[in-house]
């Protein structure tokens, strides 16, 4: 499973800019890597050690660091245990309905001191305090982005795969928020299952 954060846009949707969208995609990566153990019809073990989590998140971490001033998030090691807790707190926003997870998000924003500010030169917008460590900064960035998506009435775009045996989440960027699956593999599995079900009914 790829964990890169791709270029982002919603066709015809001006309420959410690309900066917010990118950190909403960061939330998707955190949840899918650290909090989902059923993907595309298979059970998979979650990364259990700091080294496994770092390896799984490295593309997302590299993207996050590239978009923040040098030194953002402090210089210490990444607290992957805390980041796993962040992923668990972010997940209800995707899985429990379009406006679910609000209490968890509010608590996360307070816990990680989310505060919009500019720092670096040239100034870069961030949703975390300058003194935040990497885990706290990523939590504030991702959590604030989801809160902003929900706050502009687009919470239905935070969704989870509807294919059987898959709990991967995604940020729906289609024009009418009609996406149902995490990707083509699950879409094809669901179509095949529906076809088999129809054939079974026709033969009885």
UniProtKB/TrEMBL annotation:
<protein>
    <recommendedName>
        <fullName>Zinc finger CGNR domain-containing protein</fullName>
    </recommendedName>
</protein>
<dbReference type="InterPro" id="IPR023286">
    <property type="entry name" value="ABATE_dom_sf"/>
</dbReference>
<feature type="domain" description="Zinc finger CGNR">
    <location>
        <begin position="157"/>
        <end position="199"/>
    </location>
</feature>
<dbReference type="InterPro" id="IPR010852">
    <property type="entry name" value="ABATE"/>
</dbReference>
<dbReference type="Pfam" id="PF11706">
    <property type="entry name" value="zf-CGNR"/>
</dbReference>
<dbReference type="InterPro" id="IPR021005">
    <property type="entry name" value="Znf_CGNR"/>
</dbReference>
């Amino acid at each position: 499973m790829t964990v890169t954060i791709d270029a982002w846009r919603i066709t015809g949707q001006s309420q959410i800019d690309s900066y917010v969208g990118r950190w909403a995609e960061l939330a998707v990566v955190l949840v899918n890597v650290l909090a989902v153990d059923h993907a595309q019809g298979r059970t998979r073990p979650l990364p259990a050690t700091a080294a496994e989590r770092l390896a799984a998140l490295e593309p997302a971490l590299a993207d996050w660091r590239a978009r923040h001033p040098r030194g953002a998030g402090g210089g210490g090691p990444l607290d992957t245990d805390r980041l796993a807790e962040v992923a668990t707190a972010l997940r209800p926003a995707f899985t429990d309905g379009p406006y679910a997870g609000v209490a968890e998000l509010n608590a996360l924003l307070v816990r990680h001191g989310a505060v919009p500010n500019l720092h670096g030169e040239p100034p870069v917008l961030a949703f975390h305090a300058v003194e935040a460590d990497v885990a706290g900064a990523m939590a504030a960035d991702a959590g604030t982005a989801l809160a902003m998506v929900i706050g502009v009435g687009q919470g239905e775009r935070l969704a989870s795969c509807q294919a059987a045996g898959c709990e991967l989440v995604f940020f729906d960027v289609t024009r009418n928020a009609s996406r149902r699956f995490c990707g083509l593999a699950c879409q094809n599995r669901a179509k095949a299952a529906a076809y088999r079900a129809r054939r079974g009914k026709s033969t009885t």
